[in-house]
Design goal:
mainly alpha, Ferritin, 2 domains, 82% helix, flat
């Protein structure tokens, strides 16, 4: 154990606590926006878990004489409300909330996976054990949410009682395209932020796929909506969500980039799962087949990114002179 490594552990723990504060800001309002009883109940149950996660991480910080910065907590809390506000601004709030909740759980899971690895390097078994316990609960919530995608899709469609499916489908396609465009922006930053050939390869490989996905979505959208004005509308809506700036300026950029890429993949997966169900309801078999071809690639990307957590931590610690 070195002083530099111990300081980094405190920073990772502080980030984990800050993310839990942000999660609480979302979960306290999420049940009333869920649109389906099973989703509302899942959010309520996870709120109880998240309150405990916040206490556990705060207690670990207290034990290290490193109580989280009040200013940072305030920023995180505002960020959580902003994230939820973004979902509120969408006409199909239940669906957007579903996709965003899935991605935020993935962000939490990734942050704990990074924390576990730093704690183990630092010999802080109490932190590692707590992080493993919380990570298991975050992973379980992700599985719960994915099990309710049909309910989320139905709730979203109920939020459009006056719109026919033919008008809704281009909006869902455009939203998927806008998310892919944001993913491209995130992945293009990787070479400048990651000083590790294997990590760069993971991001570069998926960048190629992501560009292909964006092209396929735009082509499909133009096939069913000639002026494709929904592309611009979706880009403007999605611009409110600036994931890349959330941890901007942190010294351990490779780890944060990896965590955000993992979370963003789940934002895409959630969006595609909803798109598939809308396309099925609309009888658009070509869009259904397109989504069925893309989603396995997104899921494989999540597995590749998760398999890179060790290297991401090593690269992050090396970047700040805290390698064990």
């Amino acid at each position: 154990m070195t002083r530099e490594l111990d300081d980094q552990l405190t920073k990772y723990l502080t980030d984990a606590h800050g993310i839990e504060v942000q999660a609480l800001a979302q979960l306290r309002t999420a049940p009333e926006l869920a649109g389906a009883p099973v989703l509302a109940e899942a959010f309520r149950a996870h709120l109880d878990e998240t309150e405990q996660h916040e206490r556990l991480t705060r207690d670990l910080l207290d034990a290290r004489d490193a109580s989280p910065s009040r200013l940072k907590d305030v920023v995180m809390d505002i960020g959580g409300k902003g994230f939820l506000l973004f979902a509120r601004l969408q006409p199909d709030t239940p669906g957007k909330l579903f996709a965003h909740a899935l991605s935020f759980e993935a962000l939490e899971l990734a942050s704990y996976e990074l924390l576990i690895r730093v704690a183990e390097r630092d010999g802080a078994q109490d932190v590692a054990d707590t992080a493993k316990r919380i990570a298991d609960e975050e992973r379980a919530m992700m599985h719960t949410l994915e099990g309710y995608v049909d309910e989320a899709a139905e709730a979203s469609l109920r939020a459009h009682p006056r719109d026919h499916l033919g008008a809704l489908l281009p909006k869902y396609l455009a939203d998927a395209h806008a998310i892919e465009q944001q993913s491209i922006g995130l992945l293009e930053r990787a070479p400048d932020l990651v000083d590790d050939p294997e990590l760069e390869s993971v991001f570069a490989s998926h960048l190629v796929e992501t560009r292909e996905h964006a092209e396929l979505l735009e082509s499909r959208l133009r096939a069913i909506d000639e002026d494709a004005s929904s592309l611009k509308d979706a880009a403007m809506r999605l611009g409110a969500l600036s994931w890349g700036s959330f941890f901007q300026g942190q010294p351990d950029t490779p780890g944060k980039l990896t965590a955000f890429a993992f979370a963003f993949e789940h934002l895409e997966i959630g969006g595609y799962e909803l798109l598939q169900r809308v396309a099925e309801r609309a009888g658009d078999t070509e869009t259904v087949e397109l989504v069925r071809a893309i989603v396995p690639q997104e899921r494989e990307a999540t597995r590749s990114i998760a398999a890179s957590f060790d290297r991401a931590v090593a690269a992050s610690l090396k970047a700040v002179g805290a390698a064990a």
